[in-house]
Design brief:
105 residues; mainly beta; Immunoglobulin-like; 4-stranded mixed beta sheet; 3-stranded antiparallel beta sheet; 9 strands; elongated; Cadherin domain-containing protein; calcium ion binding; Cadherin-like_sf
């Protein structure tokens, strides 16, 4: 098994734009592979800080309310895709756009 052309996510600089309508309704990135041997298992191994990201089938999605309340402009996600023979890993940053400015005192 290998990453599909243009993948893994670390090659694409994924982002979530909170100024759009329903920014977490669609996935902001996906885990696409080729030359699969057997059943695929997609895993979100870690996220730092916790932004309540989750995997839906092979797509990575987010929870808008958590991203807004956390206020972090970047998250690091560690993912894997495994088939019956191979496990692929990727670590990538997700940039959060459109966070409100923090007041200056």
């Amino acid at each position: 098994m290998t990453w599909a052309v243009g993948y893994p996510p670390s090659l694409r600089s994924p982002s979530v734009d909170l100024t759009t309508s329903e920014p977490c309704f669609n996935s902001f990135t996906s885990l696409s592979v080729s030359k699969v041997e057997g059943t695929l298992v997609y895993s979100l191994l870690s996220q730092n800080p916790n932004g309540d990201f989750y995997i839906h089938v092979y797509r990575i999605k987010c929870t808008e309310s958590v991203l807004r309340s956390n206020g972090y402009s970047s998250y690091t996600l560690n993912v894997s895709v495994a088939d019956d023979v191979t496990t692929l890993y990727d670590t990538f940053n997700v940039t959060i756009l459109g966070l409100p400015s923090k007041p200056k005192y």
